Amino acid sequence: MDGRKAVEEDKPSHLRAYLIVLAVNVLQISTGAVMGWTSPSLPKLNLTTHEQSLVGSLYSLGAAPGPFIVTFGLNTIGRKGVIYVLWACFMSSWIIMASSQNLYVIYIARLMGGIGVGGTCSGVPVYIAEVALPEIRGRLGSTGLLFLGIGSLVMYGVGPQVSYTILALCGLAMAAIFGVKEAEEAIQKLRGYKTREKLEEELAQIERAILLEKENSVSFLVGIRKPVALKALGLGIFVVAMQQFQGVNPINAYNQIIFEQADLNFPAKHVPVIYLFVGMVFLLLPVLLVNKLFGVKTAYIASGFGASISLALLGLYFYLINSGGVDMHDYSYISVVFLVLFSLFSHLGVSPLSWPIVAEILPLSVKGVCTGICGCISSLIGFLYLAVFPSIAKNYGYSTDFFG
């Protein structure tokens, strides 16, 4: 009985794991805040269409080098150091933004925040994978988009009610609460080990894993020449490109100003909150159902198809009110229904599953650099998409954006 009790006492605490991941995922909350800031802020700023497009898209341009910064930093300053650098990018972004409403200051702040976004999306999952126990690693790894949604939801909910400066300070406050413990102490507290022996055993396993990774690593130029690596990289680029072309980021960034043109019979500022809340509710379903009921491939294809149909219906609505001259004011809720359907379908597959698919298909020997390439290309596509979206809407109407 005493032996069994001792074993039970030394079992790692899952609660502590969830708590430490909560702390690390504050970075994901900051990511969501950067991405969601534009929707309530652009209507307050007296900007041209070109200026709106730059404010909305520059964070994605800043995100492009983020994965490479993480890849380099992991081998120099370590995981914890990388996370602190990303945290500093978020803090600097919000401080700069709160200091002035000058357009060029906002540009700089958006670029700084984008570096944090790009690095966080690739760096935080690595940290979680290393500090979480295997039996809960999958569940914890899937929480990133949920925390990202929380950050955007705060921006969507608070933004229309407060001034530009107060909203920037809200972003600063969300970033400021982040903190990470010293490495060994963090592992002991996180895992819940009560004996030094168990802690040393865990540290030894981590060290062996790092050595094995170094032994198996080869030059990127050597590894990428293998047909299987090239095929995996091409497929990875295709997957992240499809995620961007699905249209989530432009809708996140320009949600409020889009629906100010939808002839709604209620304030457009409420639409982003409805949209994101539905997405967060359905976000956890892939984690619970994909492997048991559908499989990743089926869920991904169904998600993409459903999201495309929803956007086409939304495009048809805008075509009818802008080009068809149809009075849809009494039925304007239909546009929000189409948006909610888009949110539902995108969060059931393409949004949460794209990067896990990329991580699964890339060979270990070139995974680090190839992940960075996929992340960089994804960010650049996102930048171009966000940059042209307002101009297309101005010249041809939102229906063209959604049909495209």
TrEMBL record:
Its main location: membrane. One of its GO terms (cellular component) is membrane. This is Major facilitator superfamily (MFS) profile domain-containing protein. It is a multi-pass membrane protein. One of its GO terms (molecular function) is transmembrane transporter activity. Keywords: Membrane, Transmembrane, Transmembrane helix. Residues 16-404 form the Major facilitator superfamily (MFS) profile domain. It holds the Pfam family Sugar_tr. The chain crosses the membrane at residues 15-37, 57-74, 81-98, 104-128, 140-158, 164-181, 273-294, 300-321, 333-358, 364-388. The keyword Transmembrane applies. It comes from the Eukaryota. InterPro entries: MFS_dom, MFS_sugar_transport-like, MFS_trans_sf, MFS_Trehalose_Transporter, Sugar/inositol_transpt, Sugar_transporter_CS. The keyword Membrane applies. SUPFAM superfamilies: MFS general substrate transporter (SSF103473). It is found in: Membrane.
